[in-house]
């Protein structure tokens, strides 16, 4: 591996392009880049459903960061093409652990491998600068929301959870109560939100003056919602949204869905132990905690290993 200080470092982000998957690898790549202290650029490599992938032209990756199942088989292929590259995978690659120099897996997966690092939740793109920029970009719309502002992040169906009609009614009732108490809501649904729930929520809240309801159309105000929120409510199935909310320093409440948490109960417990998350018991409490910054911690660990392989760690220390 070449000295990262001798040239612009190229970081590949490999995924199937789904926002929740790509953003994990992209957030980690951005954090690694910030930690380099030298010029870098990031190339996005998207694997289509049919398996076709277009490699960036005239680009040799120094660090390869993949996330999601679609990225797994390409690590072995790309390692043959780019033998000097450092390969990182986010999540548990199941049976392909030896294809990577480093695996970054959520601690609730309980992955124990010599080349694995555990982190609380998942990597993300949240930084103070990201939040400030988003808040400024949507300031006019945000300023129109009076009183206390609450972000409500609604996910949807997963292997363990369902957002069924009963859950949708429960969520609507909770939000109606918050509005009645004088709060303004910033509500966003996700790609996993069932169409029936998306339609019902939209019909109920879209015309309410105290609500900014984002259904996925147009420019995404998600980061602005996080930045402007005095409190954040998140449905319990979404690791990404729970961790991103916990990266803001704002109090986070968990909203239940139908199902059983299984291993995700450990994630909820860890976020509660960090001080970010509490169950909602019908009243808004205020508390503080250090914004969760696991992405930076993992990025620093990647850089330590990468520099050691490049032979630059001792020279920098000197």
What does this structure look like?
- The chain is an alpha/beta fold and 318 residues long.
- It has eleven helices and 14 strands.
- It has helices at 19-36, 72-81, 128-137, 139-143, 165-180, 195-205, 222-228, 239-246, 264-274, 294-310, 313-317, and strands at residues 9-15, 40-46, 63-67, 86-90, 102-106, 116-119, 149-154, 161-162, 184-189, 211-214, 231-235, 252-255, 258-259, 277-279.
- The strands form three sheets. It has a six-stranded parallel beta sheet, with helices on both faces.
- Helix 6 links the parallel strand 9 (184-189) and strand 10 (211-214).
- It starts with 8 loop residues before the first strand and ends with a helix.
- Mean pLDDT is 93; it is low at 313-318.
| Protein structure class | alpha/beta
Element order, helices and strands?
A: EHEEHEEEHHEEHEHEHEHEEHEHH
Beta strand %: 15-25%
The biggest beta sheet reads: 6 strands, parallel
Total helices: the number is 11
Number of strands: 14
Mean pLDDT, rounded to whole units? Answer: 93
Give the strand line-up of the largest sheet: 2-1-3-4-5-6
Q: How is the quaternary structure best described?
A: single chain
Overall spatial form: elongated
Distance between the first and last residues' Cα: 20 Å
The residue ranges in which pLDDT falls below 50 over 5 or more consecutive positions are 313-318
């Amino acid at each position: 591996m070449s000295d990262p200080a001798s040239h612009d470092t190229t970081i590949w982000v490999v995924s199937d392009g789904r926002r929740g998957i790509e953003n994990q690898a992209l957030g980690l790549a951005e954090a690694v880049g910030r930690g380099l202290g030298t010029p870098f650029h990031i190339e996005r490599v998207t694997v289509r459903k049919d398996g076709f992938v277009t490699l960036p032209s005239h680009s040799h990756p120094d660090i390869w960061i993949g996330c999601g199942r679609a990225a797994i088989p390409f690590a072995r292929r790309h390692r043959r093409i780019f033998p000097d590259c450092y390969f990182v995978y986010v999540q548990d690659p199941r049976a392909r652990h030896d294809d990577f120099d480093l695996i970054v897996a959520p601690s609730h997966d309980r992955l124990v491998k010599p080349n694995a690092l555990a982190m609380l939740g998942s990597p993300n793109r949240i930084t103070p600068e990201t939040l400030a920029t988003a808040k400024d970009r949507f300031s006019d719309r945000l300023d129109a929301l009076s009183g206390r502002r609450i972000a409500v992040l609604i996910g949807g169906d997963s292997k363990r959870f369902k957002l069924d009609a009963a859950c949708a009614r429960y969520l609507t009732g909770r939000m109606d109560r918050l509005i009645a108490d004088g709060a303004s809501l910033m509500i966003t649904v996700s790609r996993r939100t069932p169409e029936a729930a998306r339609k019902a929520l939209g019909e109920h809240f879209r015309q309410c003056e105290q609500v900014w309801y984002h259904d996925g159309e147009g420019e995404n105000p998600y980061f602005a919602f996080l930045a402007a929120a005095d409190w954040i409510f998140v449905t319990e199935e979404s690791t990404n949204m729970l961790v991103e909310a916990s990266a803001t320093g704002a109090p986070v409440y968990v909203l239940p869905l139908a199902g059983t948490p299984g291993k995700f109960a450990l994630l909820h417990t860890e976020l509660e132990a960090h001080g970010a998350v509490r169950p909602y018991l019908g009243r808004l409490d205020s508390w503080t905690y250090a914004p969760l910054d696991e992405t930076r911690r993992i990025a620093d660990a990647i850089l330590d290993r990468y520099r050691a392989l490049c032979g630059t760690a001792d020279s920098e220390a000197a």
